[in-house]
Write a structure and sequence with these properties.
alpha+beta; Beta-Lactamase; Heat Shock Protein 90; five-stranded mixed sheet; about 50% helix; transcription; transcription regulation; Sig_transdc_resp-reg_C-effctor
């Protein structure tokens, strides 16, 4: 498709955003390859709580890229002003084009990694990349703000799983590097220079690992005060030309909340405010958030006639959104005095007191347990999975500990009960 006119460009944008979420970046890359040839594409889109970083293209590049490569571009990029230059990616200097968009509240950046001898991108092509990325991120923002219950449930589940995986990886790498430090500091090693160099490398690796975890948390979560400030920016235009006075009560909390919770709370409050503004004789509306360790409570209080009902306010997807997050809607209407509506969202990712015990196991541990439950011995499992018997024994020991059982037989029985 030639992207030389407005109609082809609009058609291309439509072809991109109509794809399932997992296919948007590949399709966008294919469309942009016609005007900006590139080897790989990567995005950092902070609307997404569970997978903000995505890549597509040359596996040699994408397999060695991370959030850390794009986070500085997101922080320093200027929306509407594409940047091209060189970056160190996957161990080498690469020609890149980066475009930043603030169509989502927290921003998003797209990076196209080009060949080393690529000619600079002209202004017209760069502007087209910027325009398409703005369209895509606007689409992302709408999906995040208006997520249907099914998508929101998948997002919340994936966010919890991702957090668990990140924690396990962090523990594994920290343990390994700490062990490395202990060995290198051993008095039995007499090569002081080698020991000092290796120790420095290990300390640096630990620092980078912890910094990576902090960067990931910054993307997956929002400070409560900032999340409410973004809500205020959304609500003010709704009363700009209205006689209604809007009062805002920001949360008195320094904690962070999951991005999906913040998105949902903003969408619910906006819907409730629109319902409240439909009443006659409303002069003042107060919107506030209260946050505790366990829940976020969003309150909309008016001085109207006090005739709103739960049924009226629950329309517009409010109940469905709250159900997905195990939240609730409370309405207190006093005729002649006004209505107070409270939407409460738990801040626990996994509120179920009895989760599936197998969710505690990693992928390799599940593979071992599956074969163990079929009666296979350690040697057979090792041959099937192409690992050593000692590694199988290690996994079995971890499985027994995580499942809280004492024998292979009990683990197999539990597997058959749950699976």
């Amino acid at each position: 498709m030639e992207l030389t006119g407005s109609v082809p460009a609009l058609t291309a944008a439509y072809e991109v955003i109509r794809q399932p979420l997992g296919e948007i970046l590949p399709r966008l890359s294919a469309v942009l390859a016609e005007v900006v040839p590139h080897r790989a594409a990567a995005e950092l889109s902070t609307h997404c709580a569970h997978s903000p970083f995505k890549t597509y293209g040359d596996a040699e590049l994408t397999g060695r890229m991370s959030t850390a490569d794009l986070a500085p571009l997101l922080a320093s990029g200027t929306p509407g002003r594409p940047w091209q230059g060189t970056l160190t990616l996957a161990g080498a200097e690469r020609c890149v084009l980066a475009v930043t968009s603030h169509a989502t509240l927290r921003g998003a950046v797209l990076l196209l990694v080009r060949d080393a001898d690529a000619t600079p991108v002209d202004d017209r092509a760069a502007a087209l990349v910027q325009a398409l990325w703005d369209v895509v991120t606007s689409h992302f923002d709408r999906l995040a703000a208006e997520a249907v219950p099914g998508a929101l449930a998948r997002s919340r589940t994936a966010a919890g799983t991702r957090a668990q995986v990140i924690a396990e990886l962090g523990e594994a790498y920290s343990a390994g590097l700490t062990g490395l430090l202990a060995v290198l500091r051993s008095r039995t090693l007499d090569d002081a220079a080698a020991r000092a160099t290796a120790t420095d490398l290990a300390v640096t690796a630990l620092v980078e690992l912890r910094a990576e975890a902090e960067r990931d948390q910054e993307i997956a979560e929002e400070p409560a005060a900032q999340a409410f400030a973004r809500l205020a920016d959304v609500l003010r235009p709704l009363v700009r030309y209205s006689p209604v006075r809007l009062e805002l009560g920001a949360p008195d909390s320094t904690r962070t909340v999951a991005a999906d919770v913040a998105h949902t709370a903003r969408a619910i409050v906006r819907t409730l405010l629109l319902k409240v503004l439909e009443q006659e004789a409303v002069g003042r509306v107060h919107v506030g958030w209260q946050i505790t360790d366990d829940e976020l409570r969003a309150t909309v209080r008016d001085d109207g006639p006090g005739t709103l009902t739960h049924g009226v306010l629950a329309h517009g997807g409010v109940t469905e959104r709250l159900d997905v997050l195990n939240g609730r809607l409370d309405v207190d209407a006093v005729p002649g005095w006004g209505t107070t509506v409270s939407a409460t969202i738990p801040l626990r990712v996994f509120p179920d007191p009895a989760p599936d015990p197998l969710t505690a196991l990693g992928e390799r541990e599940l593979q071992v347990l599956t074969r163990l439950a079929l009666g296979h011995r350690n040697r057979a499992i090792a041959q099937e999975l192409h690992i050593s018997e000692s590694t199988v024994k290690f996994h079995v020991a971890k499985i027994l500990t995580k499942l809280g059982v004492e024998s292979r037989g009990e683990a197999a029985a539990l597997f058959h009960t749950v699976a």
